[in-house]
Design goal:
about 30% strand; about 525 residues; single chain; binds guanosine-5',3'-tetraphosphate; Alpha-Beta Plaits; eight-stranded antiparallel sheet; Rossmann fold; globular; 3 domains; alpha+beta; Elongation Factor Tu (Ef-tu), domain 3
Length: about 525
């Protein structure tokens, strides 16, 4: 098969949601349709416990499982579809943001009872940074949810995206009858029966069909009114606007009851984009270029504490990746060779000889790779867009056993490369500050340093709530700002200065007092703002 054909048949995406909206359930149903899994519950086991009480033993257990489910690929309608898994726990949201840099589109799941939640907004901000095309699935229609028009308004308001309903629900909760497909003009009925719930296609053709009244009773007239209203209010679906990340088609259903999932999948294969061009620091790289390139967006380390092996997940962006071929590691400026690359098909991990744009390859790594690293055939460009957000919790980490200082530094460095934490040095001294977005990470760090590196550590609380990368074209102003705040300036791994603020209020005051300095809340892991 030609490279072009291989690219055209790939669809790589992520299912994202606020925890509990139904991401895992929907993923599982999609995989069942594609034959990617055969038993319900296979994806479920991947979920990190959602309780707020931290349970790092559970996380350790899950870490093993989540390597196997990091990518789930299956074939459907002649396409090779890959779903990249994202952790549900909010403390690991950064992992999700990075995974979003490796997909070509997303399906966003919303709970019809709760609507747009905090994490939904944050995830969409990341999608918008890259203009990632989004399809929305409004889930749990079998529950008494909010009126669909209200939900659509909220989606537009809070997510700053134009929406276009593709299906329309008929009532909800106990009265939920089904959905009407606004494009194919079919009616799908929801039949909650004894034990199993079924989706049935009714013979109704269009909303003027008199059989609609027989099927829906008094809800038929309501549906007719709703459809007229929708056609009047919402612009017709526009593929170009969707592909540009400006318009989100919306589907309604119930993942748990497998209702509306096939419509979602069938539309996905029709409209979701194949791998496209990607930006680097030097030029845009097209997937059909002859020469291979890709970047690392995720690292799983030390699954077996007796070995230091890690698995780096590489997203192929152009050309063909070949096993045994020499590959150029741009950051280290040297050649590497991978003898056992893996792909993830269905429930199995298998060794591969080649991979194409859109594919995710698992590479065994002995410490050469870091999140955000670009690998190419020879060119020295770096992929943009693996995001790093300003942490909200800062602690100084202290090695409790100075005799094991080498292991301590190695452990902290490796956990940083894996993306578990961000590492800063205070005033370029030996004092190490860790920044995270969740409390849970500190427990994981302490546990893993002990288990994998034999090091005990302590954390000292720091009174900061926000960190911002500093930039200015006025070098003198920047130096002055830094000199005046020796305790509040730390440096990241790329030696970029970061300002730590005690509160949002103080940060805002500092920002307005220093107009010549720009305060950035996110940066690229490659170090560029
Ligand atoms: P997440 O990955 O986004 O965190 O959500 P997940 O799929 O785990 O779903 C969260 C809860 O919502 C689960 O219930 C799940 O069964 C339920 N759920 C998912 N889709 C639907 C739906 O369409 N209708 C209804 N009524 N519920 C739905 P749980 O009690 O937390 O877990 P479990 O005991 O069912 O496994």
């Amino acid at each position: 098969m030609s490279l072009q054909r291989e690219i055209e048949r790939r669809r790589t995406f992520a299912v994202i949601s606020h925890p509990d909206a139904g991401k895992t359930t929907l993923t599982e149903k999609l995989l069942l349709y594609g034959g990617g899994i055969h038993t319900a519950g296979a994806v479920k086991s991947n979920k990190i416990t959602k309780t707020t009480t931290s349970d790092f033993m559970e996380i350790e257990k899950q870490r093993g499982i989540s390597v196997a489910t990091a990518v789930m690929s299956f074939e459907y309608a002649g396409l090779l579809i890959s779903i990249l898994d994202t952790p549900g726990h909010k403390d690991f949201a950064e992992d999700t943001y990075r995974t979003l840099s490796a997909v070509d589109s997303v399906v966003l799941v919303i709970d019809s009872v709760k609507g747009v939640e905090e994490q939904t907004e944050r995830l969409m901000q990341v999608c918008r940074m890259r203009n990632t095309p989004v399809i929305v699935f409004v889930n749990k229609l079998d529950r008494e949810g909010r009126p669909p028009v209200e939900l659509l308004d909220e989606l537009e308001d809070k997510l700053s995206i134009t929406v276009r309903p593709m299906t329309w629900p008929i009532a909800s909760g106990r009265r939920f009858k089904g959905v009407y497909n606004l494009y194919d003009h079919n009616l799908y009925l929801f039949r909650p029966g004894a034990g199993r719930v079924e989706q049935q296609r009714s013979p109704v053709q269009g909303f003027n069909d008199s059989r609609l009244d027989t099927e829906l009773g008094s809800d038929a007239e309501r549906l007719r009114e709703d459809v007229k209203l929708i056609e009047g209010v919402y612009q017709p679906f526009d593929l170009e606007a969707y592909t540009a990340g400006k318009l989100a088609p919306v589907f309604f259903g119930s993942a748990l009851n497998n209702f509306g999932v096939r419509e979602l999948l069938d539309s996905f294969v029709r409209i979701a984009p194949a791998p496209g061009p990607r930006a680097t620091n030097m030029r845009e790289v097209r997937p059909e270029e002859d020469r291979f390139s890709g970047f690392v967006f995720k690292i799983h380390a030390n699954l077996d504490p007796r070995h230091r092996d890690r698995i780096a997940f590489l997203r192929v962006c152009s050309g063909r990746f070949d096993r045994f071929k020499q590959i150029y590691h741009v950051r280290h400026d040297r050649k590497l060779r991978f003898t056992t690359p893996y792909s993830f098909m269905a429930e199995k991990k298998r060794m591969i000889d080649s991979a194409y744009p859109g594919d995710v390859v698992g590479l065994y790594d002995r410490g050469d790779l870091s999140i955000g690293d670009t690998l190419t055939e020879s060119e020295a460009f770096t992929y943009r867009g693996v995001p790093r957000f300003s942490p909200t919790i800062f602690r100084e980490v202290v090695n409790a056993a100075p005799m094991r200082s080498k292991q301590f530094h190695k452990g902290v460095t490796q956990l940083t490369e894996e993306g578990l934490l961000q590492l800063f040095s205070l005033n370029r001294s030996n004092r190490l500050i860790l920044g995270t977005v969740g409390e849970l990470q500190f427990e994981v760090i302490q546990y893993r340093l002990r288990e994998e590196y034999g090091v005990e550590c302590r954390f000292q609380l720091l009174p900061y709530e926000k960190g911002c990368w500093l930039q200015s074209s006025d070098r003198d102003a920047l130096e002055r700002f830094i000199r005046l705040r020796p305790q509040q300036i730390v440096y990241d791994r790329e030696e970029q200065p970061v300002y730590l603020a005690r509160s949002d209020w103080l940060l805002q005051a500092t920002i307005s007092d220093n107009p010549e300095i720009s305060f950035e809340f996110s940066s690229d892991v490659t170090g560029s703002l």
